[in-house]
Design goal:
- By secondary structure, the chain is α/β, with parallel strands linked by helices.
- It contains 12 helices and 5 strands.
- The longest helix is centred in the N-terminal third of the chain and has 30 residues.
Length: 304
């Protein structure tokens, strides 16, 4: 397939390309592993299609750089390639093992996050991605600050040692579980650092995750680099766990259309408009899958 500005806008051509590629991958899987293990076939096919998409986008970005495409042209090409690849991934997974409602609703949510992150990987605004700090580094820095502060106090050496022991006990409570400061997205924009957690929606059993997010955001707020924690949620309807984070004072939480508004502010691209103009799951998925979704009342989950 020739990659150019026109071909990367041609949904039908891209769908045909990835469908042909999926047939090749399935043939390779059949020859190597046979066709009895359904889970293995589904997993290998998914891996193959992901690799195919990545290779396609790598070639696309190299050619666009050589030919001087605009940032918006590159992003929109990547969005279309990714969406068409998603369509074929869903079709083939359903053909191998038909989706049930829990698997399907979860899968649609899983695909949404990396799709939105493309706006930050190929931004129109001047932003940069960064590697998040390690908690071990943050702990070491804070511990040194406390030790230095205690050493400067006008108290006895025994009292200083006692304070440090108490401080060590507090750390042991905080670090009794693993603390990971890495979230879904980390970027710098207009001199500020932002850390983002993407969620498809909040379920009925999110207490542990909510508490973890509150702790992580509090740690970021106590660092000196001026971090702003953001939560981007796909679902319009959320429960008390979302409201807890939204009203916590440590997270800026957005859901539904608000999420797309925030992506536009930071990345500079209106992905909501692109979705409205280009994504048409019911007409882009093949007839077999649409019939399965309709018969099982699953079309309702095709909402981004």
């Amino acid at each position: 397939m020739d990659i150019n500005k026109d071909s990367t806008k041609d949904k039908a051509q891209l769908l045909a390309y990835f469908r042909d590629r999926s047939d090749e991958i399935l043939g390779e899987i059949g020859q190597k592993y046979g066709e009895k293990d359904i889970s293995l076939r589904a997993r290998k096919l998914n891996t193959g299609l992901v690799q195919s998409r990545k290779a396609f986008i790598t070639t696309l970005t190299r050619k666009s750089s050589k030919e001087g495409w605009s940032a918006q042209e590159v992003l929109e090409a990547v969005l279309m390639v990714t969406y068409c690849n998603y369509v074929v991934m869903l079709e083939n997974r359903n053909a191998i093992r038909p989706y049930e409602y829990m698997d399907f609703s979860r899968r649609i949510g899983e695909l949404w996050e990396p799709f939105c992150k493309l706006c930050f990987e190929y931004p129109l605004n001047d932003l940069e991605l960064f590697i998040p700090p390690l908690f071990s580094e943050v702990k070491r820095k804070l511990a040194k600050e406390i030790d230095d502060y205690i050493d400067d106090l006008s108290i006895t050496d025994e009292q200083k040692s006692q304070l440090k022991r108490y401080y060590g006990k507090v750390w042991s409570l905080v670090t009794s579980g693993e603390i990971k400061l890495e979230l879904d997205l980390h970027f710098t924009y207009e001199g500020n650092k932002y850390v983002v957690d993407f969620k498809s929606g909040f379920g009925s059993n999110e207490k542990g995750n909510t508490n973890r997010l509150l702790l992580v955001a509090t740690i970021y707020h106590n660092m000196e680099e001026n971090y702003s924690p953001l939560i981007f949620v796909r679902s319009k309807e959320n429960n008390n766990y979302f409201n807890t984070l939204k009203n916590s004072g440590v997270w800026q939480a957005y859901s539904g259309g608000e999420t797309y508004d925030q992506i536009k502010i930071y990345a500079g691209y209106d992905i909501r408009q692109w979705i409205d103009n280009n994504i048409d799951w019911e007409n882009d998925l093949n007839d077999e899958m649409v019939e399965h979704l309709r018969n099982n009342n699953l079309l309702q989950y095709l909402v981004w």
